[in-house]
C-alpha cells in the first residue's frame, strides 16, 4: 500500500464568495458541486483535472482570525500547484501581481516558484518544474532558495517549455 499523489485539499476561509472568485478568476479553477451541496462550502477543480474536486473551501465568517501556522501554531505552510508551461508561470506572475496577491518568487534550482496569498491570507505556491532532459548540472547543484529571474528563465527555456513532472507527463 502506497500513497501516490494528493487528491484534494480543503481550506477554511473567511468569505466563501470572495475565495471562490479568487480561485476561479485568478488561478483558473472551475466550480463543481463536489458530489453534493454543503451549506457554507464550495468545491473547485483545477483546469484539466480528472478529480471530482481539487480544492474544498469551508467558510468560517469574517470573525475568523488569521492562521497562526508557522508563527504561533503548527499547521500547513502552503499548497503547491503545478503549471504546465513556463509561460503559464509568467502569466500567473502578472495576474497575481495585478491583484496584489504575489508575495514572492524563488528559484529552487530544478523548480521555479511563485508564492501568493489568497483573500484569507493563506499562502500557496505555483511551481514550474524543469524537464529532466533540460536540467543542467548547475540546476541540479543549486541548493536552497534564490531570487527568481523569470525573464532569464524564459530566455533560457522559452514560454512553451512544458513542466517536467505533471500527471500528463506520467500518463503520456
From TrEMBL:
Entry superkingdom: Bacteria
VOC domain span: 5-129
InterPro entries cross-referenced by the UniProt entry: Glyas_Bleomycin-R_OHBP_Dase, Glyas_Fos-R_dOase_dom, VOC_core
Matching PANTHER family: CATECHOL-2,3-DIOXYGENASE
Protein name: Glyoxalase/bleomycin resistance protein/dioxygenase superfamily protein
Organism: Kribbella orskensis
Amino acid at each position: 500500500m502506497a500513497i501516490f499523489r494528493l487528491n484534494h485539499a480543503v481550506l477554511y476561509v473567511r468569505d466563501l464568495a470572495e475565495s471562490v472568485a479568487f480561485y476561479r478568476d485568478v488561478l483558473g479553477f472551475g466550480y463543481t458541486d463536489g458530489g453534493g451541496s454543503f451549506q457554507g462550502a464550495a468545491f473547485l477543480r483545477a483546469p484539466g483535472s480528472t478529480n471530482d474536486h481539487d480544492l474544498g473551501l469551508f467558510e468560517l465568517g469574517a470573525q475568523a482570525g488569521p492562521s497562526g501556522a508557522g508563527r504561533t501554531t503548527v499547521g500547513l505552510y502552503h499548497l503547491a500547484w503545478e503549471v504546465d508551461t513556463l509561460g503559464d508561470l509568467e502569466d500567473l506572475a502578472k495576474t497575481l501581481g495585478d491583484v496584489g496577491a504575489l508575495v514572492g518568487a524563488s528559484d529552487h534550482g530544478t523548480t521555479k516558484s511563485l508564492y501568493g496569498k489568497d483573500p484569507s491570507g493563506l499562502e500557496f505556491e505555483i511551481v514550474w518544474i524543469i524537464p529532466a532532459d533540460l536540467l543542467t548540472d548547475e540546476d541540479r547543484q543549486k541548493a536552497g532558495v534564490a531570487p527568481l529571474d523569470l525573464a532569464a528563465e524564459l530566455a533560457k527555456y522559452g514560454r512553451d517549455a512544458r513542466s517536467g513532472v505533471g500527471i500528463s507527463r506520467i500518463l503520456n
